[in-house]
From TrEMBL:
<dbReference type="InterPro" id="IPR037171">
    <property type="entry name" value="NagB/RpiA_transferase-like"/>
</dbReference>
<feature type="region of interest" description="Disordered">
    <location>
        <begin position="75"/>
        <end position="108"/>
    </location>
</feature>
<dbReference type="InterPro" id="IPR002698">
    <property type="entry name" value="FTHF_cligase"/>
</dbReference>
<protein>
    <recommendedName>
        <fullName>5-formyltetrahydrofolate cyclo-ligase</fullName>
    </recommendedName>
</protein>
<feature type="compositionally biased region" description="Basic residues">
    <location>
        <begin position="98"/>
        <end position="108"/>
    </location>
</feature>
<dbReference type="InterPro" id="IPR024185">
    <property type="entry name" value="FTHF_cligase-like_sf"/>
</dbReference>
<dbReference type="GO" id="GO:0005737">
    <property type="term" value="C:cytoplasm"/>
</dbReference>
Length: 108
């Protein structure tokens, strides 16, 4: 999968030390800035698969497609996949309604 990002010119560095990348970081293939397009040729390998050992139960609870995938893999293989450590997640936006949904409808 081609990975493309947009950044400001001042955010581009010539070299990213390997030690600063974590195993879940995804190296980019193309960097687009306001003044140029950079095709990255010498990059770290991309991670493959889901890193279940980094995915907390709380985060998994928020992402249905990953929950379903994990359940299917465990049922088909008969093996329980690892899970990441417990964590406290920041609050998420309420998607059931609110100010944004009334915009343009004359409500107030």
């Amino acid at each position: 999968t081609l990975v493309v990002t947009t950044v400001h010119d001042c955010q581009v560095v010539d070299d990213m030390p390997q030690g600063q990348l974590t195993k879940h970081d995804v190296p980019v293939d193309v960097i687009v800035t306001p003044s140029r397009i950079i095709r990255v040729t010498d990059r770290a390998p991309k991670p493959s698969g889901v890193m279940w050992d980094l995915l907390s139960p709380q985060k998994l609870g928020q992402i249905k497609v990953l929950r379903d995938l994990k359940q299917r893999i465990e049922e088909e293989s008969g093996i329980q996949l690892p899970q990441g450590p417990e964590e406290t997640l920041p609050p998420t936006a309420d998607r059931r309604g609110g100010r944004g949904r009334r915009r343009g409808r004359g409500g107030g």
